[in-house]
TrEMBL record:
Coiled-coil stretches: none
Segments for region (Disordered): 1-33
Organism in which the protein naturally occurs: Culex pipiens
Biased composition (Low complexity): 1-19
PANTHER family in UniProt: URIDINE KINASE
Gene3D superfamilies the UniProt entry points to: P-loop containing nucleotide triphosphate hydrolases
Nucleotide-binding is among the record's keywords: yes
Enzyme class, UniProt record, top EC level: transferase
Top-rank taxon: Eukaryota
Protein name per its UniProtKB record: uridine/cytidine kinase
Domain Phosphoribulokinase/uridine kinase: 37-180
Catalytic activity: uridine + ATP = UMP + ADP + H(+); cytidine + ATP = CMP + ADP + H(+)
Keyword presence, RNA-binding: no
Length: 180
């Protein structure tokens, strides 16, 4: 048994690797290197974003201009789907489950990750949590990079998306720590 404050700050991370490996392809006659795509999943408040931030820091990418980064991080939160009027009313009352697979735009996630793997620059609409809506006028631009981190609570739920990852990390944090 260790120090309880240290134990509460620690989380265990498991990794597994799929059989797909990044390869060089050709696009318009030029060689395109496939980015290494890492999925980072875990429960709400388990430390997924912190793990991604630490990876970027350790690789010297955190303070670099976003157009020059060779490691980028994308959040699944950017792929919440547009809610219907009735769903927005439920969300305002705290009665909409944002932790359910149906809350996400699976098709857009898949298309975006496929474009990233092809070395394309992608633009992702930001999601406004106050209005529970997609903001088409506010976009996050992801430039081609060597390593792409994709983090979220359900990044391994959808088989077509799960199969794209070259590496999968699951952040397993005690529920008492997550809820503290």
């Amino acid at each position: 048994m260790g120090d309880s404050s240290t134990d509460q700050q620690q989380s265990s991370t498991s990794t597994s690797t799929s059989t797909m490996k990044p390869t060089n392809g050709t696009e318009n006659g030029s060689s395109v290197k496939t980015p290494f795509l890492i999925g980072v999943a875990g429960g709400t408040a388990s430390g997924k974003s912190t793990v991604c931030k630490r990876i970027m820091e350790q690789l010297g990418q955190a303070d670099m201009d976003h157009t020059q980064r060779q490691v980028v991080s994308i959040s699944q939160d950017s792929f919440y789907r547009e809610l219907t009027s009735a769903e927005k009313v439920r969300a305002e009352k705290g009665q909409f489950n944002f932790d359910h697979p149906d809350a996400f735009n699976e098709e857009l996630m898949l298309k975006t990750l496929q474009d990233v793997l092809q070395g394309k620059k992608v633009e992702i609409n930001e999601y406004d949590y106050r209005t529970n809506s997609v903001c088409p006028d506010r976009k996050l631009t992801i430039y081609p990079a060597d390593v792409v981190l994709f983090e979220g609570i359900l990044v391994f739920y959808f088989p077509a998306i799960r199969d794209l990852f070259h590496m999968k990390l699951f952040v397993d944090t005690d529920s008492d720590t997550r809820l503290a």
